[in-house]
């Protein structure tokens, strides 16, 4: 089969479309013939040599995919050859075939075209596990999500708004903020020339946000704490703004606030908090909303998988709204 490989750590130019061995279907796994995958910022970090895949998983990039089941491993039930699926991966999506633990499969949602379904697993699992299962966002809460026009941001806005929360978000242009409003954000903040702490306080009569979902890390840590309401929960899922910062514990104590830092890729497949548990929750709670069309994948563009380097350039430059897909066989 062919796959995107990394010749050496570096820029997008190190990505190569080459022949590699086919994956082997182990017990409890299925082989998916990949129709599409999506570019995530973690892929850019791995390409640069900063984010190694979990031990024992594929070194090929790609944290999600959609496609057709072509092989069933020992012990797998509930899936058949020919099933149209999408999947959460620890790696391997930038390829024509990938081995997937069966518990990480999701059926293609009714009404969603198969390639487009590749835009769903990573964002749906990330948002549901962090915003709802961990932070416990509820109806009437105020929710702040940074990077509202990203793949995760567009999904977070939709799910939070559907849950009855009041959504505030940040983005870097009028066009991106317009999309965020269309998806359900009530408070749209241009981080280039507005103070999100001030805007959130204004919108909540000084109360602040009950839940903050942050992709920036160090750069926003202090201001995110400032933006929290009493009892607020800050969930950090990225480090685009750096890995080290000073935390004012006194400010956090006064608000009885909490800070959570989580990752999805490194979780075990099974066990409490594992990927199987998260995928099952997404299938139960998110998939019906997708199939009704009230929550939808936002796709900025599709590129041939052989042009993965261009996809990485687009995401690195933040030129996109929603997801950038890489389509196999095109």
From TrEMBL:
SMART domains attached to this UniProt entry: PKS_ER
Keyword field: NADP, Oxidoreductase
Keyword NADP: yes
Classification via Gene3D superfamilies: Medium-chain alcohol dehydrogenases, catalytic domain (3.90.180.10), NAD(P)-binding Rossmann-like Domain (3.40.50.720)
A UniProt-annotated Pfam family: ADH_zinc_N
CDD domains linked: p53_inducible_oxidoreductase (cd05276)
Domain Enoyl reductase (ER): from-to ranges: 10-326
An example Gene Ontology molecular-function term: NADPH binding
PANTHER family given in the database record: OS02G0805600 PROTEIN (PTHR48106:SF8), QUINONE OXIDOREDUCTASE PIG3-RELATED (PTHR48106)
Protein name stated in the entry: Quinone oxidoreductase
Lineage: Bacteria, Bacillati, Actinomycetota, Actinomycetes, Geodermatophilales
């Amino acid at each position: 089969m062919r796959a995107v490989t990394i010749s050496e750590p570096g820029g997008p130019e190190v990505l190569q479309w080459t022949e590699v061995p086919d994956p082997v279907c182990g017990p409890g796994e299925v082989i998916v013939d990949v129709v599409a995958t999506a570019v995530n910022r973690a892929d850019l970090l791995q390409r640069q040599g900063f984010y190694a895949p979990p031990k024992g998983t594929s070194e090929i990039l790609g944290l999600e995919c959609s496609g057709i089941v072509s092989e069933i491993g020992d012990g797998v039930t509930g899936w058949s050859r020919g099933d149209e699926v999408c999947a959460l991966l620890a790696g391997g999506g930038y390829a024509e075939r990938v081995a997937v633990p069966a518990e990480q499969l999701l059926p293609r949602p009714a009404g969603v075209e198969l390639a487009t379904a590749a835009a769903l697993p990573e964002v749906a699992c990330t948002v549901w596990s962090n915003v709802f299962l961990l932070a416990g966002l509820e109806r009437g809460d105020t929710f702040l999500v940074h990077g509202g026009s990203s793949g995760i941001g567009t999904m977070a806005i939709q799910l939070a708004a559907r849950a009855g929360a009041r959504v505030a978000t940040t983005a870097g242009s009028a066009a991106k903020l317009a999309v965020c409003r269309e998806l359900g954000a009530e408070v749209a903040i241009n981080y280039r020339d507005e103070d999100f702490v001030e805007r959130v306080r204004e919108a909540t009569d000084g109360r602040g946000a009950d839940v903050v979902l942050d992709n920036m890390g160090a750069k926003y840590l202090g201001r995110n704490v400032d933006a929290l309401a009493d009892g607020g929960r800050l969930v950090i899922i990225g480090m685009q703004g750096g890995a080290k910062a000073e935390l004012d514990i006194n400010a956090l104590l006064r608000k009885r606030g909490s800070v959570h830092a989580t990752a999805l890729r490194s979780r075990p497949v099974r066990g409490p908090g594992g990927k199987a548990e998260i995928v099952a929750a997404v299938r139960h709670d998110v998939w019906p909303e997708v199939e009704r069309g009230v929550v939808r994948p936002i796709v900025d563009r599709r590129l041939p998988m052989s042009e993965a380097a261009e996809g990485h350039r687009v995401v690195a430059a933040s030129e996109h709204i929603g997801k950038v897909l890489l389509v196999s066989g095109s």
